[in-house]
Design goal:
- There is one protein chain.
- With 375 residues, the protein is α+β, with helices and mostly antiparallel strands.
- It folds into two domains: 211 residues, no CATH class; 151 residues, Sulfite Oxidase, Chain A, domain 2 (Alpha-Beta Complex).
- It is 46% helix and 14% strand.
- It is built from ten helices and ten strands.
- The strands form two sheets. A five-stranded mixed β-sheet has the order 2-1-10-5-6. Strands 3, 4, 7, 8 and 9 form a five-stranded antiparallel β-sheet that branches.
- A hairpin with a 5-residue loop joins strand 1 and strand 2.
- Helix 3 packs antiparallel against helix 6 and helix 4 crosses helix 5.
- Bound molecules: the ligand Nc1nc2c(c(=O)[nH]1)N[C@H]1C(S)=C(S)[C@@H](COP(=O)(O)O)O[C@H]1N2 and molybdenum atom.
- The site of ligand MTE has 19 residues, from loops.
- Its EC number is 1.8.-.-.
Length: 375
C-alpha cells in the first residue's frame, strides 16, 4: 500500500528517473581520475610523436633501453583503462549535459562549449585509439595525424574545464558526506573495471603479467621466432633476397661500401637483448645477433654527430625508412641484425638484415634493409 501511494506521488515518479549517483561528488572524483589519465596520455603521446618526428634540435637518448615500452605502454594501456572512467563520468553527468536552457550568460556559454569540446574530443581519442590497436580503420582520415592534433584541442578544453570546476570539485571532495555508501560502491566498481582492463592488457608490454594478457590484440611470444608480426614480407612486397643482396653504405661517407651477407658475417658479431615496442602498446623482447651499426659506419669513414637513414627493400609504405640519430648509432646495442633467437632472421622479421636499436618506437626498427645513407 505504501508503495502504491509512492507510485502516485509525482515527486517519487520524478525520482525514479534519477539516481543519487548523478551527483557532484561522483563527478568530481571521476573528473580527477580522468584529469590524471588524460594528462598522462597527452605527455606520453607527445613523447611518442616527437620520437617519431623530432624537430632538428631534438635528440632522443638511446637509454634506458626499454623507456619507450614504458611510455607507450602507459599511453595505450592507460588509455584503455580510461574508457570505463569516461563512460561512468558521462553517465554521472548526462542530466547536466542536456540541461535547459543551454546557457544563462556568455560565461556560462563558454563553459558549456568547453564541456562540449571536451566530451567530443575525449570520445574521439579513446575510440580512434581503440580502433587503431584493433587494426580497424572505419574512418576516412589518417589516424596518427588526427589523434595528434585532437589531443591539443582536448587538453585546451580540459584546462578550461578544470579552471571552471576546480573550486567546486575541491569543496566537494574535501567535505565528508553522510550517505557515502552508494557513491563509494559505484566508484569502486568503476575503478575495479578500469583495473581489470589494465590487468588483462598490461601483459602485452610487461612480461611478468603476460599470462593475464587476455584482452590485448597482440601477445608477445606468438609469431615466427617468438615475436609478433604486423607486416609480413609478403604484405610488404619483399621477396626473399638472393645471393645478389647487398647492404650499401652511401651519402656523406669517407668511402662507399657494398656489403654482402658474407661480408657482414665476417665483421665482429654481437648479441643483444632488446625489445620491439610498437606504438600500439605491445612490447616483445628478442635476442638479436648481428653487426654493430657503428662498426659498419666507422668502416665507411663516418664519425661524430652525423644523422643516418636506413632504407628498406620495401617499395612503398610509411615505415620503409627511418632516421638513426648519433646517440643511437653510436650505441653498442644498435645492430644491423642478421639473427633472432638463435636463428637467421625469418623473412617476416626483416631477413636478411634489419635494424634493432634501444629506446626506439617499433616503427623505427626498419626491416629488410638495403641501404644506410649518411646525411
Ligand atoms: N620496412 C618496414 N619495416 C618495419 C615495418 C614496416 O612496415 N616496414 N613495421 C615496423 C613496425 S610498426 C614495428 S612495430 C616493427 C615490428 O613490426 P612487425 O610486427 O611487423 O615485425 O617493425 C617495424 N619495421
Ligand atoms: Mo608498430
Amino acid at each position: 500500500m505504501v508503495r502504491g501511494t509512492a507510485l502516485l506521488n509525482p515527486a517519487a515518479i520524478g525520482r525514479r528517473f534519477t539516481s543519487r549517483l548523478h551527483d557532484e561528488r561522483v563527478a568530481a572524483w571521476l573528473g580527477i581520475a580522468l584529469g590524471v589519465s588524460f594528462t598522462t596520455a597527452f605527455v606520453t603521446g607527445l613523447i611518442s610523436h616527437f620520437m617519431q618526428h623530432p624537430p632538428d634540435w631534438m635528440v632522443w637518448p638511446s637509454r634506458p633501453v626499454g623507456l619507450y615500452s614504458v611510455t607507450q605502454g602507459l599511453h595505450v594501456i592507460g588509455g584503455l583503462a580510461t574508457i570505463p572512467l569516461l563512460l561512468a563520468k558521462l553517465w554521472t553527468v548526462y542530466p547536466k549535459l542536456f540541461a535547459w536552457p543551454p546557457f544563462r550568460s556568455a560565461g556560462h556559454a563558454a563553459e558549456r562549449l568547453a564541456v562540449l569540446v571536451l566530451v567530443g574530443t575525449s570520445l574521439f581519442q579513446l575510440a580512434t585509439g581503440l580502433f587503431n590497436i584493433a587494426y580497424w580503420y572505419p574512418f576516412p582520415f589518417n589516424f596518427p595525424v588526427a589523434h595528434y592534433w585532437t589531443s591539443y584541442l582536448l587538453v585546451g578544453a580540459l584546462v578550461v574545464h578544470v579552471a571552471n570546476q576546480w573550486a567546486t570539485a575541491r569543496r566537494t571532495v574535501m567535505t565528508r558526506p553522510e550517505d557515502g555508501v552508494w557513491r563509494r560502491g559505484f566508484l569502486l566498481t568503476v575503478a575495479a573495471t578500469s583495473g581489470v582492463v589494465a590487468l588483462t592488457t598490461v601483459g602485452e608490454a610487461f612480461r611478468p603479467l603476460a599470462a593475464l594478457d587476455l584482452l590485448a590484440p597482440r601477445r608477445p611470444g606468438t609469431g615466427p621466432q617468438g615475436l609478433p608480426v604486423n607486416k609480413t614480407a609478403q604484405a610488404a612486397g619483399v621477396t626473399a633476397a638472393g645471393p645478389a643482396w647487398r647492404l650499401r653504405v652511401t651519402g656523406r661517407v669517407g668511402r662507399e661500401l657494398s656489403l654482402s651477407l658474407a661480408d657482414l658475417r665476417a665483421l665482429p658479431q654481437h648479441t643483444v637483448r632488446l625489445p620491439i615496442s610498437c606504438v600500439e602498446g605491445w612490447t616483445a623482447w628478442g635476442t638479436w645477433d648481428g653487426v654493430r651499426l657503428r662498426d659498419v659506419l666507422r668502416a665507411a669513414g663516418v664519425s661524430g654527430g652525423a644523422r643516418v637513414r636506413v632504407e628498406s627493400l620495401e617499395r612503398g609504405g610509411a615505415y620503409r625508412s627511418s632516421w638513426v640519430d648519433a646517440p643511437h648509432w653510436h650505441d653498442e646495442l644498435t645492430l644491423l641484425a642478421l639473427g633472432l633467437n638463435g636463428e637467421p632472421l625469418a623473412p617476416d622479421h626483416g631477413a636478411p638484415c634489419r635494424l634493432i636499436a634501444p629506446n626506439r618506437p617499433g616503427v623505427l626498427q626498419t626491416k629488410w634493409l638495403t641501404e644506410v645513407v649518411v646525411a
